Amino acid sequence: MLRSCVSRLRTLAVLRGQPGVAPLPAKDPWSPRRSFSSEVIHMDLSLPNPSWNEDMRLLFDQFMKKSEDGSWKHLPSYKSKFTQRTEDIKIYFPDAKLMKEKLSQAQLFPRSLEEGLGFEYAMFHNCVEDRIVCIFQGGPYLQGAPGFLHGGAIATMIDATLGACAIVAVGVAMTASLNISFKRPIPLGSVVVINSQVDKVEGRKLFLSCNIRSVDEKTVYSEATSLFVKLDPKTRLT
Ligand SMILES: CCCCCCCCCCCCCC(=O)SCCNC(=O)CCNC(=O)[C@H](O)C(C)(C)COP(=O)(O)OP(=O)(O)OC[C@H]1O[C@@H](n2cnc3c(N)ncnc32)[C@H](O)[C@@H]1OP(=O)(O)O
């Protein structure tokens, strides 16, 4: 509780530009330098960076430790590079040339904000139980109600985590439906844990669920259920 309050105060101090607190970087959001440097595009952004608070680092270290025996696996995450091979995705587009052009300019939405300002997260896959845990620290640009995360930002992280869970399980799949119950507001700057799992597979349909809890697991912030559909290789995305 104390830690989350300190973290919230720090966030608010950054926003108000208080002395001793580093101001937010004033960069032109459309500057090509920030978006298309190949160094950034191919850098794994789910590794610790200076914006991560103590909870985030501790959890990351714990999961990395659990990954040593192979039961958990850290999933890398890039600004625009897909974990799927381009060949696996290409078949779903009617025009391969157009798809290549589009992808060369595209960025994964949760990775589109500067370090520390938006979505800071790392995902771990439990290879034995077939579930994914995402540790998530929502930055000051994700505000909804004052001091708390925007519901759309929460939905984004839920979708991304469930999506990763679906893709790891069956390959390329898309969200068909997503139902979220927001139970408690999530303080800006705090760290939460998203636990996702595949509940049932029926043909191309995957039913998944997840919950978002505090680090001490005492608070349930949100719960969600979803349907993902594995894409049919015969159908094109139009
Ligand atoms: C190219 C992708 C890249 C992937 C890499 C991403 C990495 C990043 C990860 C980020 C992750 C972020 C992820 C994102 O943000 S994904 C972005 C948000 N999602 C979309 O834009 C998806 C839009 N929808 C579609 O494209 C199609 O409708 C899909 C592909 C979903 C299904 O169209 P398709 O033609 O393939 O299937 P079908 O119509 O034959 O239906 C098949 C079965 O499914 C049942 N059904 C369908 N819809 C619904 C529904 N709404 N409720 C209940 N049931 C539904 C249907 O009744 C049938 O059941 P049955 O009759 O057989 O029993």
UniProtKB/TrEMBL annotation:
Name of the protein: Acyl-coenzyme A thioesterase THEM4
Localisation per UniProt entry: Cell projection, Ruffle membrane; Cytoplasm; Mitochondrion inner membrane; Mitochondrion intermembrane space
The keyword Lipid metabolism is assigned to this record: yes
Entry EC no(s): 3.1.2.2
Highest taxon above the source species: Eukaryota
Name of the gene this protein is made from: THEM4
Family of the protein in this entry: Belongs to the THEM4/THEM5 thioesterase family.
Coiled coil ranges: none
First-level EC class: hydrolase
The species this protein was found in: Felis catus (Cat)
The entry's keywords: Apoptosis, Cell membrane, Cell projection, Cytoplasm, Fatty acid metabolism, Hydrolase, Lipid metabolism, Membrane, Mitochondrion, Mitochondrion inner membrane, Transit peptide
SUPFAM superfamilies listed in its UniProt record: Thioesterase/thiol ester dehydrase-isomerase (SSF54637)
